[in-house]
Amino acid sequence: MSIGALFATGAGTGLLAGATTCAALHTGLLAGVTREARHPVRPVASFLGAKLASHTALGAALGLLGDAVRPGPSLRSVLLLVSALVLAFFALDLLGVPLRRRRRSSCGCDAACAACGDAAHGAHEGRLRRLVRGRGAAVMGAATVLVPCGLTLSAELLAVGSGSALAGAVVMAAFVLGTAPLSGLLGLGAGLMRGRLGRVLGTALLVVAVWTALGGLRLGGWLPEQTAAAAIDPRYVATGADGVQVVTVHATDRGYRPALLGARAGVPTVLVVRTAGTTGCTRAFEIPKLRVERLLPETGEVRVDLGTRAAGRLRFVCSAGHYPGSITFQKEPAR
């Protein structure tokens, strides 16, 4: 793929992410860095500039070194949980929930204050509140590289397959540029929100924090799984003349269909994942146990050789952890 085509693909993915998954994950951070800024343009610009720099550097590394520098599912699940905690912090802050109790002196002031007065109180703001000012916006923008959404992971897989530092950097830079217009507007809007609007945003961010945490837990395999065995459905499981079992799953924008499948254990098996105009994070398909990661085409199919599986459950999930599924391999009953 040419540099121009890579740029166009990365930018297009970024435009979609800016309106969906990246918006959900990063609006909380933008709200935090702009909430008390008199002029929100500067912290938003610092946030987006640092995000562009960190993602471009990652793209160059992915293009040069490939999967060797890409974190595995377990590490990414932890990063998603950290992201959820950060989002929850800013959500509670917007809702006016006190996040830190201060000791009071006999005069009623904070115990840390040497004297009364607004100036003394202002000198003892919380550490995180000071962080998000000044350089904090740039720090948080750069840190977004550690908490990717599903479409960011799709762009990363494209950078991995590009085969060069330049091509990988172009993909990730174009991706961030694609997310920038809507992200910037969200950041400016979050900075201007006060009162009731701020509470609405805080409530929405709290929901996003829970949603992000569930994705991290699901990606890491730390949520309870459905234990009921799925029946072997001949519409999705077939065995050819060569004895190879073919399991077919359809990846849609809202999940994998069917999400629960049954298959025969002890026979060579190939998984076929099909798409038809799919643009969601389900395109970034993973089988964590086998460390299989595939970027699915918008329309087409990808074949994954599963080998000969013993009886048991094999999980698959999108790279953001939001859409899970599994294949239950079953022993054939004795005849």
UniProtKB/TrEMBL annotation:
It comes from the Bacteria. InterPro entries: Cupredoxin, EfeO_Cupredoxin, UreH-like_TM_dom. Residues 14-211 form the Urease accessory protein UreH-like transmembrane domain. The chain crosses the membrane at residues 74-95, 137-159, 165-188, 200-223. Keywords: Membrane, Transmembrane, Transmembrane helix. PANTHER family: HEAVY METAL TRANSPORTER, HEAVY METAL TRANSPORTER-RELATED. This is Sulfite exporter TauE/SafE.
